[in-house]
Amino acid sequence: xxxxxxxxxxxxxxxxxxxxxxxxxxxxxxxxxxxxxxxxxxxxxxxxxxxxxxxxxxxxxxxxxxxxxxxxxxxxxxxxxxxxxxxxxxxxxxxxxxxxxxxxxxxxxxxxxxxxxxxxxxxxxxxxxxxxxxxxxxxxxxxxxxxxxxxxxxxxxxxxxxxxxxxxxxxxxxxxxxxxxxxxxxxxxxxxxxxxxxxxxxxxxxxxxxxxxxxxxxxxxxxxxxxxxxxxxxx
Length: 235
Hints:
The chain has ten helices and two strands, in the order αααααβαααααβ. By secondary structure, it is mainly alpha-helical.
């Protein structure tokens, strides 16, 4: 919140800045960036390393947000670029920089059926609150209502598409919980950068969900190949 205040136009003009509810919501978005990065590095770093990562990444994410939104004037009202995309790529970069060889894979480090089901609680909470996440800081009120409507339609169509594709890509027609956990939220992520558009909401969410599910399955295959080998890259 302080860093955003120092970068604000109000501070540049008057030397002071205001802390209110909009600033708190933007600060929550910065926390979401760290959570997304932790999803990439989960189980590969110590708590102290995660704490240092949080301080470091939060500062960088605020600077990136300031450059993208205030300087480049990119339409990213739902923070799809500066939160979701940045958090994912930052996590991949951190994993690449801190990789170690000659580390054996332990069975306890992988996901199990119970952990996948328990993770669905977080997915359900995110699904319910995602329209508010995309629409909270939108102005005027008409834009806020449009963001809520488009996000709900995108997530509803994306959820149905996820279940259909997850069953089709499985040899036995079963649902893959890893697909369900992430791909059901892909519609809300995709529509975050297009919340102002009155149409094409369903098309955007369907295309994004289809690509997300396919990439997810391809990534799982690569991950299984390396994890089942004798050596693994890890932090």
